[in-house]
Automatic annotation (TrEMBL):
Family label: Belongs to the bacterial CoaD family.
EC number, UniProt record: 2.7.7.3
The protein, known as: Phosphopantetheine adenylyltransferase
Lineage, top ranks: Bacteria, Bacillati, Bacillota, Bacilli, Bacillales
Subunit-level organization: Homohexamer.
TM helices/strands, residue ranges: none
GO biological process: coenzyme A biosynthetic process
Domain of life of the native organism: Bacteria
Site, as annotated: Transition state stabilizer: 18
Binding-site list for substrate: 10, 42, 74, 88
Required cofactor(s): Mg(2+)
Annotated organism of origin: Litchfieldia salsa
Amino acid sequence: MARIAVCPGSFDPITYGHLDIIKRGANVFDRVYVGILNNSSKSPLFTVEERIELIKEVTKEIPNVEVDAFSGLLVDYAREKKANVILRGLRAVTDFEYEMQITSMNRVLEEDIETFFMMTNNQYSFLSSSIVKEVAKYKGDISELVPTTVKNALISKYK
């Protein structure tokens, strides 16, 4: 049986922290679907289509990664992709409580899908899309936080 994982998130935008989890997940699982949550209650900077293109660009060298978008329940998306794992990154202990709640709810909805947590590389433990956007908005240097493609897209958005 193929080991298929879904790595969900808003990825607005994708950062080196996200990429770290995706790359490491691709080394563990046969296929990793990067599922961009299309959350209508949020006002993202990038459209879903823009996020798909940015993530495809920065993951193009990882052959077992596919990029997709979904709305609704994560477990429904995972079932659709025939995934048996949800892959989540943890930055710090503060992430754990929130993630534990989500994992517990997902387990109630679909007990056959496991959640795997990966600790983000220490150099990215402070990093979030919100922080990157804030720094980019005020023209700070984000070249150590996101791939060049993403940096250029952010610069373009904030012109």
